[in-house]
Write a structure and sequence with these properties.
Radius of gyration: 19 Å
Number of helices: 4
Number of strands: 0
Largest sheet: none
Protein name: DUF1311 domain-containing protein
Helix content: 55-70%
Strand content: under 5%
Shape: elongated
Organism: Parasphingopyxis marina
Structural class: mainly alpha
Distance between the termini: 64 Å
Order of helices and strands: HHHH
Amino acid sequence: MLGPILLAAMQFIPNATTCADSGNLPQQMMNACAAWDFEQADAELNATWPVVLDYVRTHLSEEFAWDERPSGEERLRAAQRAWITLRDEHCGVWAYHMRGGTAEPLLFHACKTRMTRERIEELRALMIEDQ
């Protein structure tokens, strides 16, 4: 027979309502909410990316083709690849505060969420014209 907490965890679906007060949830559910929160931030990043990329292609690539340096698009793509590696590795280390514990996934996903939201703002800041 399954205990009530395990049964609740099996039926738990993370969303804005179920995760609204995740601090009062059992650890497995808090971990699920942290992973869900990261998925939301990552979806926002993925929606922001093509808009920023289009802006960089239009405003920061073509007019400088004469100087033989990488285009704005090439540099942005390289920066994004490097940033993803940095985020994932940094958050992996950050999660070691609870290495091997049940809260390790919570720290990992919370870190990735924070860094992803910060990155969204950094990318949006690139689209400011005539600074």
